[in-house]
Each structure stands twice: as C-alpha cells, then as structure tokens.
Amino acid sequence: MIAPDKRAAANEDFDKKEAAVKGRIAALEQKKKDILAPKPPRKPRKTKKQKIQDLIKSASKAGLKPEEIAQRLGLDQPED
Hints:
Blueprint: H1 4-36, H2 48-61, H3 66-73
C-alpha cells in the first residue's frame, strides 16, 4: 500500500503533466485552425488609369462639367 502523501504527490504531478499536455494540444489545434482557415482575399490594386477614371467619375457626380474639371486641373482645352 502506498502512503497517502506519496499518492497525493503522484496525483498532483500527473495533473500538472496532464495540464501541460492539454495546453500544448490546444495551442497546436489553434495553429492548425489558423493554417487551414482561408485568408481573406486581397483587394485588387488599381492601375493609374483606373484611379484617374474614378476621380473623373466622382468629379462628374459632384456636378462638374468636363470643361470645369479640365480648368481646375489647369489643362488647356483646344476650342473646337
């Protein structure tokens, strides 16, 4: 028969080891979940042309006429 204090010490040691292993398992499961989860899709980059088109579109929505946009940009438009 094992002494009660030895049994308690053995149980306590086992509980510590069990907690450590469960902690490692949880960490590994979280790592697995992070690896298997798909990353959010990247926002596509806009080309310079697309950026300029967006600016012109927003200026038009603001009520500016093409002549006013050109004037504000400091562009000379040939008169037809």
